[in-house]
Design a protein that fits this description.
It is a single chain. By secondary structure, this protein is an alpha+beta fold. Helix content is 56%, strand content 15%. The strands form two sheets. A four-stranded mixed β-sheet has the order 2-7-6-5, sandwiched between helices. It has a three-stranded antiparallel β-sheet with strand order 1-3-4. Strand 3 and strand 4 form a beta hairpin. The longest helix is centred in the middle third of the chain and has 41 residues.
């Protein structure tokens, strides 16, 4: 199987100050399409946004990765420009009153255009969501990325699948810390549980199956106590078996973060 290919329309996009980060919206904004052997695997694209500060304007590095079913990866470095929207209005009250009817017509046209755009976007998003649901090993929620595909390929197939599920749990926990959206958290946990059911028959060793059972137990704990979601996931990552898997992933992520920090400092 050929190495996956990432096609990206925009290397940098603007992002509103304080707006939560969602994988699906980042994919749309950057214009990302991922393929592997002519198969669309855009739903398996994941981002590392650990350096982004949504409460502070500035340009932040974002790393993107896609992993195909064979564990082969493709990565890229992008930029997220977090900024505020300033309103400027220098028109005098007399002129504003004079132009009021014209502005009202303009706003009606703008609103109509926006409605058309929203409908078109919704139709596109719904079609893409349908494709994503059919991916057997959906890594959309994974927050851990790496620019070293040879290191990832050294992991066994079982370990790679388990690492993706734990990464998806950590991503869901971090997102809940930001937006406190319990319904969205539950949706993500349900999605991970569905993936785990599919993985149960794919895992080869009894040890891996037992580890997958532990992942499901952690999901139940998070559902019962979402406020401790991050600490619950961290406890899982420190357990025997998970610790060695996660160390292999985390070391590469940290190297990529350090590289991004150096590039950002040099450019300043």
């Amino acid at each position: 199987m050929a190495k996956p290919i990432l096609t990206i329309q925009h290397k940098m996009i603007d992002w509103p100050l304080g707006k939560p980060l969602l994988n699906s919206e980042l994919i749309n904004q950057f214009g990302i399409v991922a393929t592997s052997d002519n198969q669309d695997i855009t739903g398996m694209v994941s981002f590392n946004t650990s350096q982004v500060k949504l409460d502070q304007p500035g340009q932040y590095p974002v790393a993107v990765m896609v992993v195909n079913s064979q564990g082969e990866t493709a990565t890229a470095e992008l930029t997220l420009n977090v900024r505020t929207y300033e309103q400027a209005n220098s028109v005098s009250p007399a002129t504003r009153q004079k132009n009021k009817p014209k502005r009202r017509r303009t706003w009606i046209i703008v609103i109509a255009v926006l409605i058309v755009i929203v409908i078109a976007w919704w139709a596109t998003a719904a079609n893409r969501a349908h494709r994503i649901e059919q991916q057997a090993n959906n890594a959309e929620q994974s927050s851990q990325i790496s620019n070293n595909s040879s290191s990832i390929s050294k992991l066994s197939a079982d370990n790679l699948k388990l690492a993706k599920q734990v990464a998806a749990l950590e991503s869901a926990a971090k997102q809940y810390e930001k937006d406190k959206n319990q319904q969205e958290l539950q949706n993500k946990l349900t999605e991970i549980q569905n993936q785990n059911q599919q993985l149960q028959s794919q895992l080869k060793s009894d040890n891996s199956k037992q580890m997958l059972t532990e992942v499901n137990q952690v999901i139940t704990q998070i559902e019962q106590n979402p406020e401790n979601a991050s600490s619950t996931v961290n406890t899982l990552k420190e357990k025997d078996g998970f610790s060695s898997i996660w160390t292999s992933i985390s070391s590469m992520v940290n190297n990529l973060i350090s590289s991004n920090s150096s590039s950002s400092s040099n450019s300043n």
